[in-house]
Amino acid sequence: MGVFVKQKEIFQLPYIPLWSAIIIICLLSLCYLNSYNGEFVFDDIEAVVNNDDVKDTPIISVFNNDFWGTQLSHKQSHKSYRPLTILSFRLQYWIRQQLIPEDYHIFNIALHIITSILVLFVFNVLLGTEAKNLSFYAAALFAVHPVHTEAVSGIVGRAELLSAIFIWLSILFYNCAILSTKIIIKCSTIFITIVCTAIAMLCKETGITAIGICLLYDLFIVNKIYLKNIINTVRNIPTHRGTRNFIKLKYNFLIRAFICLSTTVIFLFARLYVMDFTAPVFKRNDNPTSFLSKMMLRAINYNYIYCINMWILICPEWLCFDWSMGCIPLIKELDMRIGIVCIFWIILTKFFFFFVSNHNNKLQRSTIIGIILLIIPFLPASNLLFNVGFVIAERTLYIPTAGYCLLVAIGLQELGRKILERRLLLLFYTILILLFFARSYIRSSEWKTESVLFKSALHVCPLNAKVHYNIAKNAADNGNVLLAKLEYEEALRLNSQYAQAMNNLSNLLKDEGKFSEAEKLLKKAVKYQNDFATAWMNLGIVYSAQKKYEDSENSYLTALMHRPKYADCYYNLGVLYFEQKIYKKALMAWTNASKLKPTHRRAWTNLILLLDDLNMPQEAIKVASEALNHIPNHASIYFNIANILGKANQYEEAENYFKKAIMKDPHDAMFYTNLGVLYHRWNKLERAEEMYKKALTVEPNLRSANENLKKLEILKLQIK
User: Fold this and answer.
1) How many Cβ atoms sit within 10 Å of the Cβ of residue 237?
2) Least CB-packed of 364, 482, 635, 685 within 10 Å?
3) What's the farthest any 2 CA atoms get from each other in the chain?
């Protein structure tokens, strides 16, 4: 009589139907909703608010400039080429004709929802039907991971979001090319894969890693050519017949590999061409490790940075908007942190041996996919291929997180095969999702305003000079000068060569009339950073305030040497020449400022007033008319035209321009006063009296309006 042995049930995570999975992932992705009504913060200011490419420059300039609006050929350009991301910002501005931060935040959240749903489909495709149950658990974790907060809640993180979407689309279409039996579909899907990769690259440079992911997936998963096979092939010289059989057997794969590699070479060449074959120049503070002279120390420090990146994926408690300037002290000698690096490499070695093992099963397939998705998209940020301008940037982990989440889901399932209480395991997973959701919700609220964001970094990186610098900058913008000075001083205590902090602190001292102290700081700033154009300009302003006109002019010219298209510097140079009564040079300087920055209101205003003072009214009106083409809502331009016409006794035209000025700004008492003077001279005394009284309603102590009203009353008595 036979004995039947009950086969042990193999634990599988419960399968979640596709539509249910999509709905749950959409709901989980709303963990960042807390930032929907946030402001533009940190890098958003430079990339969006102060970036003319987002507003009104010719479209072609978007493709000539970097992500921050600086020409790619400029030596200070970061060479970050993301024109499609800028165009997405510009489209939103074009629709609303103004920068509304809520629109940008909501759009980012929507993009994250789309990305998370695509992650589910990508996992379904890459894992295959046998391990499809893992997809939901990994995608759900991806949707709520707190490390994504910077990418979703920071507007500049849109580059990651858009790039991720097209990377996932590239993978999906590449898989279609693999599975299809029709040559037309194969060719078209490969072509779409290349197009999606190109779009991903134009959203952010890391988009090119889509090709690496596709190629390795094809090599290891589809064709089951593992590292061990490659090593054996290299060690044993293949015969001609063996090579021919391999080519015949793997013909389709070799064609796809050739297309992928050729595309990579073309894309890299195009990228270098756009950069004019020059690398961006980063400062020591941006990435201190890359400036270490000893290769061994660089390697140890880079590996320690990888450990920190891994830790914030595992336990996303340490989240900071900036990790530079002392946030992670360098390892320069024997240090306990080297032990962490050793543990990190032991784990990597374990993964490597598993990677080259003969196990051809679902676990190995899933693990390989997780490792590919974790490592390949991270390579551009790893300093292995080229030096980057940051220590850690959380948004660069946006795509690698997909690989990490898949590895967690795999570990969860494997753990379920070792323990008996499987419901308890699912409970722990649910608790993890809820904790991550709560952490993301709280963290996204910290990205709503700069003051909260900068202060949130203090418990993570209290030794980061840039954190204190940004707190100081925000305090100064909000009028808290005392806090700003204290924080700038703390930033300089932590980093004695912090030129930007010196420059900003000197501005506060200059505003308080402490010119000698400001001068000392600015001299130190340009000593440590000789090409710091803003510091040179501010030094010129300080010299000018002390009547050191020659030194002031030299400082302005030095600033323009380092930054030739510096409108504000030309404006201040014009002010310097005006103070010295060198009117011709002042006109030239203000003309340059208005040409370089057509929205420079003070440059236009001073130019018009100086032309009028030089008895050149026609030229002044011509310049004013040109100014209105660029700044049609600037009331002072209408006011200046009205004054010029009034002096020429062109009363009706002057009246019209005064009314336009008042319409643009009804709260300026001088507009009413000067219109009253026009009516006074025009002998429309009742209207003149009405305007003087309106001026005094707006500003009761306005001396000129009071005096003119008294003169008018005397005149009316004389007439009677």
Assistant:
1) 8
2) 482
3) 137
